[in-house]
Design a protein that fits this description.
Elements lengths: L1 H21 L7 E5 L2 E5 L4 E4 L11 E3 L5 E3 L7 E7 L4 H19 L4 E7 L5 H11 L5 E3 L21 E5 L5 E5 L5 H13 L2
Parallel strand pairs: 6-7, 7-8
Antiparallel strand pairs: 1-2, 2-3, 3-10, 4-5, 6-9, 9-10
Helix pairs in contact: 2-4
């Protein structure tokens, strides 16, 4: 009986250790080897990269949920906020009002910021369009049901690894911040405002 339990216990311990090793850092600690250098993940779950350590974000292009085309290369010089979401995703619904609010505030203030959604795992554009209408989202979203756009991010960068994910790209087109959880409008502004202030 004990012999049968030992392999199970060993497997559980090994799995727990592996999850600990692959998890992002927290509590403001640094982690090396991501985003071209080290990044810091704060208690809110937001990872940030020092300006000197940032790497270029990939260009994203394709069809939007309303049938238009979009290319992030045309947004150069702006802070780009990429939000990965799905209409079926409860945390995405939770954070959507904050994204709508902040995007409209910054647009009204004439700030050089572009919000871009990446709608994924939705089989219907109509579901995505209904989501935007329900939550007052006015910025464009790529229609990416297979998640192919997320695969364009280089390995060992702050890439989207969950739904929702938010990645903020600086004015030079480099990956500056990321979170893998639903966030409030306050946290979103804390990700964006320092990049707007950069020279």
């Amino acid at each position: 009986m004990r012999i049968g339990r030992a392999p199970i216990l060993l497997t559980a311990v090994t799995l727990a250790s592996a999850l600990t090793l692959t998890a992002c850092t927290d509590g403001g600690k640094s982690a090396a080897g991501s985003a071209g250098g080290s990044y810091v993940t704060g208690p809110s779950g937001v990872s940030t990269v020092a300006k000197a350590d940032r790497v270029a974000a990939p260009t994203l292009d394709g069809e939007t949920i309303d049938g238009k085309t979009l290319d992030t290369a045309t947004l150069k010089g702006k802070v780009i906020v990429l939000n990965v979401w799905g209409s079926w995703c409860p945390p995405c619904r939770q954070e959507a009002p904050g994204f709508a609010k902040v995007s409209k505030e910054l647009e009204a203030a004439g700030k050089p910021v572009a919000f871009v959604g990446i709608n994924t795992r939705d089989n219907s554009k109509q579901n995505a369009l209904n989501f935007d209408e329900d939550y007052g989202i006015t910025y464009p979203s790529f229609f990416d049901p297979d998640g192919r756009l997320m695969l364009r991010f280089p390995k060992n960068t702050l890439s989207a690894q969950s739904i929702p994910s938010t990645i903020v790209i600086d004015k030079e087109g480099k990956i500056a911040a990321r979170t893998l959880v639903a966030i409030s409008d306050v946290t979103l502004r804390k990700m964006i405002d320092p990049l707007l202030a950069e020279k």
